[in-house]
Design brief:
The complex is a heterodimer of chains A (about 290) and B (about 375). Chain A is an alpha/beta fold. Chain A contains 10 helices and 14 strands. Chain A folds into 2 domains: about 220 residues, Rossmann fold, CATH 3.40.50.300; about 60 residues, Alpha-Beta Plaits, CATH 3.30.70. Chain A has a 6-stranded mixed β-sheet with strand order 6-7-8-3-9-10, sandwiched between helices. A 4-stranded antiparallel β-sheet of chain A has the order 2-1-4-5, covered by helices on one side. A 4-stranded antiparallel β-sheet of chain A has the order 12-13-11-14, covered by helices on one side. Chain A is elongated and about 75 Å long. Chain B is mainly alpha-helical and about 375 residues long. In chain B, strands 2-1-3-4 form a 4-stranded mixed β-sheet. The longest helix of chain B has about 35 residues. The chains are: A alpha/beta (about 290), B mainly alpha (about 375). Chains A and B meet through helix 2, strand 6 and helix 3 of A and helix 1 and helix 7 of B. Chain B: This is ABC transporter permease. Chain B: Pfam families: ABC2_membrane_3. Chain B: Its main location: membrane.
Chain lengths: ~290, ~375
């Protein structure tokens, strides 16, 4: 498990990180969400040791993270980049070897991973000859080729087409399934919502909320219900203890004062006939994010 | 995937640095520009050696027609190739035909007993070859022919200048390439800045050294093939010193090139930011060419770390350096190199992740 305790970073006068604390559990896909300049990249750089913090600690399984531990981390920086003139396989093998892998094992790892990421046909092409999407896949291969014990990815999905997003999602889920803690940041809240076990929301250098997706919903979301009937649902406005949030003909989204009020509304809908569906509306991550950050 | 079992141990510093050096060398050898420019340089060296022998080697004896009776004067004179003729008329015929450059005839009125006849101008070469000089002794004979000294100075100067500049700017480009393509952040999360810098400096030093060695071999081969072995005897010791000084001096320059280049983020800015280091490389080249006959300037040059790789071997060649002088100068160079590497590493480490505007030197040093 990776833990951050009170990590603080200053850039001159500006406090970029203010006592940032959160944890990434073993085998948990943890989404790291925040606006531009909220401190995501700074936090990730501090975890990887490419930037020094001004205070606080980063622990791996309870012990402070040292240079040797970090060699076993996998990292995909926000600023993408590989050697443009090196070939895909050559470059991936080189990075694995920098992490200490023997040539043969490094090559086997690289080939397997590139195949998995859909770059099996392009191993002998130079990075600069690849499309942006494929360069991105190569970048992910670079972060994974040494089979890291901790994975940190800064915006791994930006610039990927929907097919590539799916491939990368599957690869990340596989990595997490082996027990590796995975932390990744993203602006694409829908992907984070679909993929993540845990969430960390950062705003203005402070952790605004963190926990499992479910816990955050319970904590920050207001429960809403969605009703669809064949006829007009206008009667819903007159139901006691119900406030309609959105309305369109036979479709309505409403909040209920109590379970009893909700049940009464459902009974009413059934007795009026023409009920198509009645369901709880899941609070979207975007809603939680907005609420938490404000 | 049970990955924990076959996961390797943390790599050692030496392993990381040699991997980085290896990549640096492989990529350079793959570059067509590098291969072509090296080929051109080799050809230039070979050409200058061969041409030097063609133009410098015209010490053939001058042909002179010798009328019987004067042959005793001409025989045994290495500068003259006597062509015996029966009388002066036959000699004049040869002279007009351009077969000979002069005629030597016996003369009773001349104190030397001969007269030299030319065609349309005084055959001064022949005359001076036959001239009689009083014996001369020099109290302080010049050990080395000044022309030869000039060529040796030029040789040391240009080899140092070219190699240092070529591989210095190669290092600078390699540093900025990693910064510009952002690959440096992945590298820094994998290896230390020190290993990265060491690998770069070592890789490019090996290349520079290899090139110098290749130049030396080609020059030697050329000299041997054209029969100029004479030159080598006196040069040997100074060439060995040159190689030793170059090896250390280049590491110093490489560290400075890497450090200054790390302060910028775009290839276009390399030129301006490395100018001070480039000046340090160019200065000894011009100094040694203009002042190779000035003992004071050479003496100073041979101790200043940046010009010592050229200055000290030059003094060793001229025979003006005591035996201990190269050793003292080498110690100074070594100390400066260590300081340059330490400061360079600091600047390098502090500047690598600062992209965008050029990093100020003060910030780079403070971190």
């Amino acid at each position: 498990m990776l833990e951050l305790h009170d990590v603080t970073k200053r850039y001159g006068e500006r406090l970029a990180l203010d006592h940032v604390s959160f944890a990434v559990g073993d085998g948990r896909l943890t989404g790291f969400v925040g606006g531009n300049g909220a401190g995501k990249t700074t936090t990730m750089r501090i975890i990887l040791g490419v930037l020094a913090s001004d205070g606080g600690t980063v622990l791996l399984d309870g012990a402070p993270v040292g240079a040797a531990d970090r060699r076993r981390f996998g990292y995909m920086p926000e600023e993408r980049g590989l050697y443009p003139k090196m070939k895909v396989l050559e470059q991936t093998v080189y990075l694995a070897r920098l992490h200490g892998w023997a040539p043969a094992a490094a090559r086997a790892n690289a080939l397997e991973l590139l195949e998995r990421l859909g770059l099996g046909e392009r191993t002998d092409d130079t990075i600069e000859s690849l499309s942006l999407g494929n360069q991105q896949r190569a970048q992910i291969a670079a972060a994974l080729v040494h089979r890291p014990e901790m994975l940190v990815l800064d915006e791994p999905f930006s610039g990927l087409d929907p097919m590539a997003v799916e491939t990368v999602q599957a690869v990340l889920a596989d990595v997490a399934a082996t027990g590796v803690p995975v932390l990744f940041s993203s602006h694409q809240l829908d992907i984070v919502e679909r993929l993540c076990d845990d969430l960390v929301i950062i705003a203005g250098g402070r952790i605004a909320a963190s926990g499992t997706g479910e816990a955050l919903r319970t904590q920050h979301g207001t429960e809403r219900w969605e009703l669809l009937v064949a006829g007009d649902a206008g009667w819903l406005r007159q139901q006691p203890g119900i406030s309609v949030v959105e309305f369109d003909g036979g479709w309505a989204v409403f909040e209920a004062e109590s379970d009893a009020a909700r049940e009464a509304a459902l009974t009413e809908a059934v007795s009026r006939g023409g009920l198509v569906s009645f369901s709880r509306e899941r609070t979207s991550l975007a809603q939680i994010f907005k609420e938490v950050v404000q | 995937m049970s990955t924990t079992l076959d996961r390797p141990a943390t790599p050692r510093f030496v392993d990381s640095a040699s991997l980085i050096a290896g990549r640096e060398i492989t990529m350079r050898l793959r570059s067509k520009t590098f291969l072509i420019s090296t080929g051109v340089l080799m050809l230039a060296v070979l050409a200058s050696v061969v041409l030097g022998s063609l133009f410098g080697g015209q010490n053939e004896a001058t042909k002179v027609a010798v009328v019987a009776g004067a042959s005793s004067v001409v025989d045994g004179n290495a500068a003259l190739d006597p062509v015996p003729v029966d009388d002066q008329a036959a000699g004049e015929q040869l002279l007009r035909d351009g077969e000979v450059d002069a005629i030597v005839v016996p003369s009773t009125s001349d104190p030397l007993g001969i007269t030299v006849i030319g065609l349309d101008q005084t055959p001064s070469g022949v005359a001076s070859a036959l001239a009689v000089y009083p014996s001369v002794e020099l109290l302080e004979p010049a050990a080395v022919d000044p022309m030869l000294a000039y060529f040796v100075a030029f040789g040391f100067g240009i080899v140092f200048f070219m190699s240092a500049l070529t591989f210095g700017s190669t290092i600078a480009q390699s540093v900025v390439e990693e910064k510009q393509t952002r690959v440096v952040e992945i590298l820094l999360s994998t290896v230390s800045a020190r290993a990265l810098l060491t690998g770069k400096v070592v890789g490019n030093s090996v290349l520079a050294f290899g090139q110098i060695l290749a130049i030396a071999v080609i020059a030697l081969l050329g000299l041997m093939l054209t029969g100029q072995k004479v030159l080598l005897g006196g040069l040997g010791t100074s060439v060995v010193w040159f190689i030793v000084f170059f090896a250390i001096g280049f590491v110093m320059l490489a560290a400075l090139f890497a450090a200054t280049a790390a302060m910028v983020s775009r290839a276009e800015d390399i030129g301006s930011v490395t100018t001070p280091v480039t000046m340090l490389v160019m200065l000894p080249y011009f100094l040694v060419i203009f002042f190779n006959d000035n003992p004071t300037v050479l003496a100073i040059m041979s101790y200043v770390p940046f010009s010592a790789p050229v200055g000290m071997p030059m003094r060793v060649f001229l025979g003006t350096a005591e035996w201990w002088e190269p050793i003292v100068s080498l110690a100074i160079l070594l100390a400066t190199t260590i300081a340059a590497v330490l400061i360079g590493e600091r600047i390098y480490r502090n500047s690598l992740l600062k992209t965008g505007a050029r990093v100020k030197l003060g910030d780079a040093l403070r971190g």
